Amino acid sequence: MGTTDDTLSSPSVGDALFGVTRQSVLRLLFGHADKRFYQRQIIGTLGLGSGTVQRELDQLVRAGILTRVVEGRQTYFQASPECPVFDELRGLVRKAFGVGEVLRDALAPMGGHIYVAFVFGSVSTGSETVTSDIDVMVVGEGISLQNVVSSLAKAETTLAREVNPSVYEAGEFRRKLSGGHHFLNSVAAGPKIFLIGDEHEFARLAEIRMAERAHDKSARNRRVARRRR
Length: 229
Description:
This protein is an alpha+beta fold. The chain is built from 11 helices and 7 strands. It has helices spanning 13-17, 20-31, 39-46, 50-62, 86-97, 99-107, 122-125, 145-159, 170-178, 182-189, 199-228; strands at 37-38, 66-71, 74-79, 114-120, 134-140, 163-169, 193-196. Helix 2 crosses helix 5 and helix 6 (99-107) runs antiparallel to helix 8 (145-159). The termini are far apart.
């Protein structure tokens, strides 16, 4: 009997486009596009076979995607800003199998307790530097900052970058957002790379609180009206 597409597990965008080694190389170098890495450092960081990594590096250099510079006994590689698809490739890496994919996998075991989780700040806008943290917001029920930090520990190693999570219980998030909390309203208005949930779920959380406020206001008005009788 034939197998329909919906019975198969769907590959990620990154898996559909690139092999594991190429994803790893691109994730590292385009995830730190303003930094160069020497060959042995790349191999050690990725933890993959040296021959396989070297072949990927050679192919990417020949394609003009990476630059290679030899200084003394060291060979350095870096994402090439002269590549005609530099911005597009950097955005693809960030969203498909770079920061987003690594963090998504790290948070997946907690997914049942998380309503929305997303990257915000400089990484979401593409303006990060080599010293930038990865800012992550997590909103859910029955979660704590300690739980999230523990879940993201391996992701920090993989991405070679510090991850800075902001964690809110759903009720607290709703109260602060609808109450004009400067930080949360700034985040809400900015770009996001969603890890769990999406913009609709994010908006729904805000709308629930607005509905609660309207209900509370209506109830207060009724109490006042009764007192005036």
